[in-house]
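Sample 3 of the quickstart, ligand AN7:
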Amino acid sequence: MSGWKGLLTEYAEWFHLEGVREVVTLQEGNTPLLFAQRLSERVSANVYLKFEGLNPSGSFKDRGMTMAITKAKANGASTVICGSTGNTSAAAAAYAAKAGMECVVLVPEGKIAVGKLAQAMIYGARVLQIRGNFDQALDLARELTQHLPVTIVNSINPDRIEGQKTGAFEIVDVLGEAPDILAIPVGNAGNITAYWRGFTQYHVGGRAARLPKMWGFQAAGAAPIVLGHPVANPETIATAIRIGNPASWVPALEVIHESLGDIRAVTDAEILDAYQFLARQESVFCEPASAASVAGILKFGVPEGSTVVCVLTGNGLKDPDTAVSLSGMPPVVDASLDALMKTLS
Ligand code: AN7
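Result:
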């Protein structure tokens, strides 16, 4: 039997894996690239959705985590730590469990989607809620590495970006070429940096003749890169990208410069519109932060006839509260044919 073996094996030639004897994998990657029929019609272009919500822990973070945990284990680490808006903690907890390592996660109190909290807990991480926001949680995680024998697995760990570059490889492997535009949500700006590295390496290696323009989208209430200064109290319904001081700020500026791209803001209302549109018109249930990429192309438009890939970074099931509160709880009806007929007609 031979199936998909996970990123580090499938793309081994693109990594430096010297000294690694054991790969820690949950067979992440190889996610669908769906052609979005109705979205394409709406923007008069060919739009594809890279649905990263179908990774093992339900987000793109698994791409970086297979590498970060594999390297941490090879280096003899026994405990990893991260600050997180939720998805990093879910992925870190999952891969640490697979590796037989301890995992400590710091999350902002009350500001992570319930599915992500549930994941970190059930995978067995030590979860602490910080009375503060993500930026403070990340600062504290970094500081703790100075005082405790723990390895940080946020995207300031270069192994994370390395693993995440494979998202770009998969897109080119399916399309046979890089798209004209890659639209992607931006929080800490690690993923936009990783995708650019992937496209660039494939281009230099002769796998893609061209390079895409990189279009990043931040939530308007948490848009430090757009504003040009840190945001002390970021606020957005898209809690995954509720980040006021991105760790990969400088690399992200380089990406938009080199790719002739841009980073712009979309409002929560625009994010929720795109989130609902994706579910109802494309049958893809992603989380609100992920919909920022689609909100961005709907808001700003794309060149007619161009090929666009929107990265949908996480699964909608992670944040059931947002889905339910947007739709409202369903009505309750008596268990009789009569009552049903009255309600439905
Ligand atoms: C669904 O989990 O930062 O710009 O701690 O979960 O690479 O930070 C999550 C980020 C986009 C932004 N979409 O990616 C965390 C965390 C989803 C996310 C982003 C995140 P980056």
